[in-house]
Amino acid sequence: MAKTLPAVDVAIVGGGWTGAIIGKELAAAGQRVVVLERGEARWPSPDFQGPNVHDELKYTRRHALHQNAATETYTFRNNTRQKALPMRRWQFAYPGTHLGGAGNHWSGAYYRFDPTDFNLRSHYNDRYGAKIFDEDLTSQDWPITYDELEPYFDRFDYLVGASGQAGNIKGQKQEGGNPFEPWRSRPYPNPPMKVPYAAALFGEAARGLGYHPYVQPSALVTRPYVNSEGLPMSACVYCGFCSNFGCEHFAKASPQVCILPVAMKLDTFELRTGTHVLRAELTEDKKRARGVTYVDASGEEVFQPAEIVVFCAFGINNVRLLLLSGIGKPYDPDTGEGVVGRNYTHQTTSGVNLFFDESIHINPFMGAGAVAVTMDDFSADNFDHGPLGFVGGGYIQIQVVSGAPIGYHPTPKGTPSWGSAWKQAVKRYYNHSASITITGSAQPTHGAYLSLDPVYKDAWGQPLLRITYDLPDNDIRLSAFLTQKGDEIGKAMKGVTATEPGPRKRPFTATAYQSTHLTGGAAMGDDPKTSVVNRYGQVWDVPNVFVTGAALFPQNSNYNPTATVGATAYWIVEKIKADYLRSPGPLVT
Amino acid sequence: MMAAQRRSMGVVLGLVIGLPVLTLLATIYQMVGTGGDGLIRPTAVTAPPAAAPPAGGGQAPAAKAPAGQAAPTASGAAAVAPPKPSEPVPGRSAQDFSTPKLAWEASLRNADPERGRQLAGAGRPEAGVQACVACHGQQGVAAPGGNFPNLAGLRADYIAKQLSDYRTGSRNHPLMATIAKALTEEEIGQLARYYGSLPAPAVQLGSGPEAARTLDVRGENARALPACANCHGLQGSGEGALLPRLAGQPKSYFIDQMNAFRSGQRHNDDVGVMRAFAQRLTPQDIEALATYYAGTPAGAPQATGK
Fold first, then answer.
1. Which among A190, A214, A250 is the nearest to B226, CB-wise?
2. Distance between CA atoms of A570 and A536, rounded to whole angstroms?
3. What is the pLDDT of residue B304?
4. To the nearest whole percent, how much of chain A has pLDDT over 90?
5. What is the mean pLDDT of chain B?
6. CB B62 to CB A223 under 8 A?
7. Residues of chain A neighbouring B60 (CB-CB closer than 8 A)
8. How buried is residue A29: exposed, middle or buried, by Cβ count under 10 Å (0-12/13-18/19+)?
9. CATH class of B203-297
10. For chain A, how far is it from start to end, CA to CA, in angstroms?
11. ipTM of the predicted structure?
């Protein structure tokens, strides 16, 4: 029998970006807020200080900041004819856990979604005709526009201390910025990052081919900065231990650095770590959540009553929480009915490995999660899709993240995978290779969805989340096109002796890392038949439950999700503050 | 003609005699520890100005971190109003992929440390270049009790950069500015190579105030202070080409430099990181860190306890 605690106003599941934003905002508005974080508290000091944090074995290979796959993992299959099997270790994505979540171990690549991402279906229909969409695609418009979201992007920019050079302020093109950039109301709060050598070579080659390369915006701060919450951050030192690591320099934006210290000073805000939420509990008519049940760090089951429940867990874990709580109708791929789990997508990534002659010293160890020269000539709808016959786009870049010794030893194809020939090749190429990274959009299909696994359970006896996913033909064509473009740039780069393009192929494999951008499953929309939540993240069927994060995306943009995750969190909480608290009930009828 | 020669002779003589005398006086002044706004700054921890520090080194200026914050006082009362968020600053073009040229880089190429040794010992008085050894000691280890830094144990790149920064004024010290401006590029390289080759003085750290040991290895989360060791190496041993060794530096020199960072007078740190950290440290922190990094000469009995 669960122990019942005194009621709070708001129970928030997850202590990452959206939980921190929504928790802090509602607590500051006088709501009694409890944030339930399943992991442990982790702070830049003492937990991420050097030299101990520079431990590749612990953080990258053993996933210290990722969901513990031994207690809770996903099962995976490509289609409904297969039997899904559980993943014992993370390879295709790194779902976050512990305080700060994925907002702690992320890379800091920081893009806003393109305006056409928000009206994707109607934009492509208008420009190219409906036939541009393959029949299997369930891509759909967001219920909100870029223009509506812009003030919230802006707010998140100044929270994280985004670095970059604006290309478009209120419609005015800016010298030195990205010419494809959507309009923004203010400049980036911090200047662009420094440029590693491989990225500079990429930029020069891309410019020579007539493209428009620029330094990637990032949430790695480039100077001492005081953010919009009055919290100090320091400058990135390009230490090369960034993605998968916590940042010892208070330079990588995270909930711990940017927002939680302020939230935790509020009397109305409580952070409770070690609380694994099992489900939201509904009233008998299933129209209202009574609170959430969790298992605490001592193993005791606890019921936390609350007036509002906000699911702020890692993207698709919110979908699992909805399914476990019996909220919304699960999607059925056979009938196409139901919405929870529908429109799951990943990110269509690919790459071109480059090998240089020995006069080019790349120094890959001098890097950061988001230090890159990138280009948007093939992002979104910045190019003519008509003759190409697919929807979506991708950015092409060189990003120098890490030369960490366990994970980084590039060798050309045909090199033996062990022995003295392998060692010689590693020695030859360690400092003379780089990779062009291509990050493409991903379209949802009828057959790709999230559901509860009928066989496998987690350590608490609850069904695992089952992923059924394969790459649609549309995205295979997209990847082939973009990878070809990347290869052309690679061949034009100074000192390159060989290129190895690797376009994404079917079937999708869960054993190769492709990004942690797992999106959809609780799509935001105007129509309850094709969406789980309304334009304010409010569940159609249970209006005192809100969902945040990348689960809201009806399909995935080619841009990294975090800026849009942050902006939508502010968008949602402002609506809760402005309207819902005054008169709780459906915000859209 | 004769008068002009005599005059210039007088200038040279004045420099030859005057500057060492000045140095001596300054040293005495320093050692007796008087205060005031003299040629050499006093070593008491001073408060940073209420306003933002000046823009640094042609780069982005430091954030206006404690702009609205009450200046720390000698008693270290930490009355902290919420800091004002930083305003955006104009930055580099996002289409600029070039690597900035380092002003001192060329000077180090093929520089002869032996020439540096000779220059350090004899100076070039006719040009106003004092013998380095007068203040920085034989073998680059300064006399104890002063506020002159040890140069032994610092890296050549760091020394070359500092001399270059004294020329531009991003690091500010009347005597050193005069000397650095009189040095040729070549001499800067030679001196940097010479001092960069000398072994650091043997020193023991590890005891010292607990507050400092904590800041060294852990930093402090509440003030967003990373561990000093992240950049300066474990126990201030120095790291990489430009992150100086702190271990063994005289206490008063350390305090002086932290004061200069706090006030923004010294602004040759990369994008202002040290200025921002120094402003978030209390006077007590700085005293403690100075004591800790000064350490005790190796072999001397270690203080026990905290």
1. A250
2. 10
3. 44
4. 99
5. 80
6. yes
7. 190-191, 222-223
8. middle
9. mainly alpha
10. 38
11. 0.94
pLDDT for res A170: 98
Residue B180: left if φ>0, alpha if ψ -120 to 50, beta else—which one? alpha
- Nearest residue to A521 (alpha-carbon basis) of A461, A440, A465, A564: A465
Q: Of A106, A109, A112, nearest to A93 (Cα)?
A: A106
Q: Evaluate whether A60 touches A407 at the Cβ level (below 8 Å).
A: yes
Identity of the residue in A46, A192, A232 whose CB atom sits nearest the CB atom of B224: A232
Decide if A433 contacts A356 (C-beta within 8 A): yes
Backbone angles phi, psi at A448, to 5 degrees: -100, 120
CATH class of B105-196: mainly alpha
Q: Which of A191, A232, A237 sits opposite B60 (nearest CB)?
A: A191
The domain ranges of chain B are: 105-196, 203-297
State yes or no: pLDDT of B35 exceeds 60: no
Q: Which residues of A touch B219 (CB under 8 A)?
A: 44-46, 49, 248
Give the pair of three-digit tokens for residue B194: 């010479």
A63 among known catalytic residues: no
Query: 3-state DSSP call for residue B165?
Result: helix
What does the pLDDT look like over A376-410, one tens digit per residue?
A: 999 999 999 999 999 999 999 999 999 999 999 99
What is the C-alpha separation between B261 and B48, in angstroms, rounded?
9
DSSP B16-42: HHHHHHHHHHHHHHHHHT--SS-SS--
Does this chain's domain B105-196 share its CATH topology with B203-297? yes
Q: Bridge-partner residues for A372, per DSSP?
A: A399
Asked if A232 lies within 8 A of B273 by C-beta distance, the reply is no
Task: Determine the pLDDT at residue A264.
Answer: 98
Tokens linked to A284: 């008998």
Contact call for A225 and B63, based on CB within 8 A: yes
Q: Residues A402, A367: contact at Cβ < 8 Å?
A: yes
Helix, strand or coil for residue B3? helix
Mean pLDDT of A178-192: 97
Backbone torsions φ then ψ of B39, nearest 5 degrees: -65, -40
Burial class of residue B127 in the structure, from the number of CB atoms within 10 Å of its CB (0-12 exposed, 13-18 middle, 19+ buried): middle
- Answer for the pair A224, B67: CB distance below 8 angstroms, yes or no: no
Question: Which of the pair, A258 or B60, is modelled with greater confidence?
Answer: A258
Angle at B8 between CA B4 and CA B10, to 5 degrees: 115
Task: Number of A to B CB contacts under 8 A, please give it.
Answer: 158
DSSP states along B85-139: PPPP-----TT--PPPPPTTHHHHTT--HHHHHHHHHH-BGGGTB--THHHH-GG
Which position has the token pair 């953010």? A227
Give the pLDDT confidence of B236-291 residue by residue, as tens digits. 999 989 999 999 999 999 999 999 999 999 999 989 999 999 999 999 999 999 99
Q: Which domains does chain A have, with CATH numbers?
A: 3-580 (3.50.50.60)
Beta-carbon contacts of A382 under 8 Å, excluding residues fewer than 6 positions away, are A180, A376, A393
Omega cis (within 30) before A333: no
pLDDT of B90 strictly over 90: no
Question: pLDDT tens-digit profile of A435-486?
Answer: 999 999 999 999 999 999 999 999 999 999 999 999 999 999 999 999 999 9
pLDDT tops 50 at residue B53: no
3-state secondary structure A376-424: CCCCCCCCCCCCCCCCCCEEEEEECCCCCCCCCCCCCCCCCCCHHHHHH
The first and second tokens of residue A173, run together, are 């093109």
End-to-end CA distance of chain B: 69
Helix axes B156-168, B174-182, angle to 10 degrees: 100
In chain A, what residues touch B84 (CB-CB under 8 Å)?
226, 230
